Known about the structure:
The structure is a single chain. This protein is mainly α. The chain folds into two domains: about 1-55, Arc Repressor Mutant, subunit A (Orthogonal Bundle), CATH 1.10.10; about 65-200, Orthogonal Bundle (Tetracycline Repressor, domain 2). The protein is about 75% helix and about 0% strand. Helix 1 crosses helix 2, helix 1 (about 10-35) crosses helix 4 (about 55-75) and helix 4 runs parallel beside helix 7. The longest helix is centred in the first third of the chain and has 25 residues, at about 10-35.
Amino acid sequence: MANARPRTRIQERNRATILEAALEVFSRHGFRGSTLDQIAQEAGLSKPNLLYYFPSKDAIHAELLSGLMESWLEPLKALKDDGDPVDEIIAYVLRKLDMARDLPRESRLFANEIVQGAPRIHDQIEGPLKTLVDDKVQVMRGWIAAGRLADVDPYHLIFSIWSTTQHYADFDTQVRAILTPTADEHFAEAARFLDHLYRCALTPR
């Protein structure tokens, strides 16, 4: 079968516009609360024009989630087994916090999918994500056995890192209502707090 014809620059630009609009709509309304009409309006395109590029709402959502999972794995992949254990884990915490600051819509998209039972990415969670987490847990258990890291449960440590960092994206409205920051200075404050929290918790006694 002949290869598909390469997309033109206009086609690539329109696809990117649709995905950007869909990210905004999905992160605001969730998958079930979003419609193709909303996405088309956000993108500044007609609904028939949108359907030329993507056959359904599911297809748009699936493409967004596929790209998101790749980004989601990168911060944990960067945790090195030959570094200082506490410094490596805190660096991971700060990478996740940076993602909460820089990619809040992506975080909410992921959270909405998980809350719904992860129907579209369950295989990726049980596959690449679980495999990566299991690998890093073994690294942490090696550090604990060597006395280089406090004796904590590595799985629950990772869950706690996800909770304490992604909270700043998923509950951004609540955080800003309480702290009333003028911009994003609360992320620097959060970074200092989380550095102190995890350094105290993870440094061997």
